[in-house]
Specification:
86 residues, alpha+beta, Ubiquitin-like (UB roll), 5-stranded mixed beta sheet, 3 helices, globular
Length: 86
């Protein structure tokens, strides 16, 4: 399976200390919710960022607004955008 590209913006980029990565997803990950569970499984700041849904987290799939239940395909680009705290 080709990798997906995951982008992190706003507070997520600061908290996770990463802006972009490519991931080869296990066959069990079929949608964005599954991707979020996989990322939360990294623990620490990742668990805080992706363990519980919250209204301040915006998601895009191939540059279009997306929801957690949208399916993920090889070569997709998923962006997670969290507002910056002041």
């Amino acid at each position: 399976m080709n990798p997906i590209t995951v982008l992190y913006f706003g507070d997520l980029m600061t908290k996770l200390e990463i802006g972009r990565e490519q991931l080869r997803l296990p066959a069990s990950v079929k949608d964005i919710a599954g991707l979020m569970r996989l990322l939360a499984g990294r623990g620490g700041a990742w668990q805080q960022a992706f363990g519980q849904p919250r209204p301040t987290l915006r998601i895009t799939l191939n540059k279009k607004a997306a929801q957690a239940l949208d399916s993920v395909q090889p070569d997709d680009e998923i962006a997670f955008i969290e507002g910056i705290s002041l």
